[in-house]
């Protein structure tokens, strides 16, 4: 009799962590198949960067893969070269966290008791269908994988293209749609002006990459509000007291602003007020009405992002120095036109505030506007196949796919799947904060326990 199988599509951080937690909780008779289309398992986009200047945005002490082993990542770091120097800086290179996750996966594969419980399968899943026995995943190379349960852990997708740009420009050599692509800044003359669309953490990473390769030309960063991520405090702030949290947006904002003012009056700042929401953010999000959630996304999301997702101190120092020297120039407005003229990208934008039209001429345009979330617009074979088959649907806020509290996917009619689930950024519409490691870890633990209960009932 074949082993019951849980297939996880995507072996970045979300998928790999879910696999590790499933192996902790599921009966030994269960096989977990972890599928990855790219060359490396365990790293994912965020932690695959080879640049040591790309630092984690969360202190290493809070980055363990296991809630019940809070020092696991720090203990692993202590076994690495230059451990003390790494730990002293608090925010370590992201590539080290990727190496840590890969090490956890390698240890699991090598365990004598594994005995085929964990299978690493390289390939691309192009479609999925329901059968009488369960599910069948259609893979490249005319391969078919039967599974009893499947989990989408497909991570983030590249930003949506600027709507004002024509197809010829978007397909041309001057526009880079993926800021993480290896060729984003290849063959770029060091004096050439560059435009980065967006002013969030992705723009920060792109700027650091340019500085590290010795770029001397102007770096223009444009967004509708021109907000930069704030920096982390030099020392860990004292936690703010936890009070009751209002369930309406107006009252919640009023409460948080009041706490921030009181903290400032007492010699502190706003950071502990934001940080104390971490364990409750998902609960607050789910308590808000759909109208309040939409209102938050329209008006407050950029402000939340720059206060909640902050820069490590050394990174903030370099960004501030680049701004002070005039190399990094922030622009605030909405893009009006974007075209190629004589080997140069010409852009006009309407400046926020006075409405004046401003023109920029640059040698490269890199889209750092944040991941694409509207799944009706995402051109990915598996996503398109699932939507066309009616097995999934976008969530009402267009932040990902529609899931329940236990991450079961809803189909076109809203029915709850008993076999198809999702974890990670794809579930953002239901949980909002689903990008940082502590949030994904909590979700993977909950989903692993839920799926383990399903398979235990099946085997009973």
From TrEMBL:
InterPro entries, sorted: FAD/NAD-bd_sf, HpyO/CreE_NAD-binding, L-asp_N-monooxygenase_NS-form
Protein name: FAD-dependent oxidoreductase
Organism domain of life: Bacteria
FAD-dependent urate hydroxylase HpyO/Asp monooxygenase CreE-like FAD/NAD(P)-binding domain sequence ranges: 7-156
Pfam families membership: NAD_binding_9
């Amino acid at each position: 009799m074949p082993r019951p199988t849980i297939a996880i599509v995507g072996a970045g951080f979300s998928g790999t962590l879910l696999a590790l937690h499933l192996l902790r909780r599921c009966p030994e008779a269960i096989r977990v198949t972890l599928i990855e289309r790219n060359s490396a398992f365990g790293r994912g986009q965020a932690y695959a960067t080879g640049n040591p200047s790309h630092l984690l945005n969360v202190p290493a002490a809070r980055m363990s893969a296991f809630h019940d082993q809070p020092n696991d990542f720090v203990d692993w770091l202590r076994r690495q070269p230059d451990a003390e120097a790494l730990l002293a800086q608090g925010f370590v290179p992201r590539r080290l966290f990727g190496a840590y996750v890969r090490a956890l996966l390698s240890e699991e594969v090598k365990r004598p008791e594994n005995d085929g419980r964990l299978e690493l399968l390289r390939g691309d899943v192009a479609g999925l269908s329901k059968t009488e026995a369960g599910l069948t995943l259609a893979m490249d190379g005319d391969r078919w994988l039967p599974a009893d349960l499947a989990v989408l852990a497909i991570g983030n997708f590249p930003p949506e293209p600027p709507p004002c740009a024509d197809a010829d420009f978007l397909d041309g050599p001057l526009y880079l749609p993926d800021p993480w692509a290896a060729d984003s800044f290849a063959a770029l003359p060091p004096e050439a002006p560059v435009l980065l669309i967006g002013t969030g953490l992705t723009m920060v990473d792109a700027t650091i990459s340019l500085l590290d390769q010795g770029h001397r030309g102007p770096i223009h960063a444009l967004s509708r509000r021109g907000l930069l991520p704030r920096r982390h405090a030099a020392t860990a702030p004292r936690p703010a007291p936890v009070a009751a949290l209002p369930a309406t947006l107006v009252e919640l904002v009023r409460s948080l602003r009041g706490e921030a003012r009181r903290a400032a009056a007492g010699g502190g700042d706003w950071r502990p007020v934001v940080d104390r929401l971490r364990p409750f953010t998902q609960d607050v999000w789910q308590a808000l009405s759909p109208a309040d959630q939409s209102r938050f996304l329209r008006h407050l999301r950029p402000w939340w992002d720059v206060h909640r997702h902050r820069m490590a101190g050394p990174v903030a120092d370099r960004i501030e120095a680049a701004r002070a020297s005039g190399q990094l120039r922030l622009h605030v407005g909405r893009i009006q036109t974007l075209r190629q003229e004589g080997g140069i990208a010409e852009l006009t934008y309407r400046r926020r505030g006075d409405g004046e039209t401003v023109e920029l001429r640059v040698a490269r345009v890199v889209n750092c506007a944040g991941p694409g979330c509207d799944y009706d617009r995402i051109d990915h074979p598996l996503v398109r196949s699932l939507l066309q088959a009616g097995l999934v649907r976008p969530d009402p806020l267009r932040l990902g796919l529609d899931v329940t509290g236990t991450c079961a996917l809803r189909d076109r009619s809203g029915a709850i799947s008993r076999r198809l689930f999702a974890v990670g950024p794809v579930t953002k519409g239901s949980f909002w904060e689903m990008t940082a490691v502590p949030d994904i870890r909590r979700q993977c633990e909950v989903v692993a326990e839920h799926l383990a209960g399903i398979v235990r009932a099946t085997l009973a």
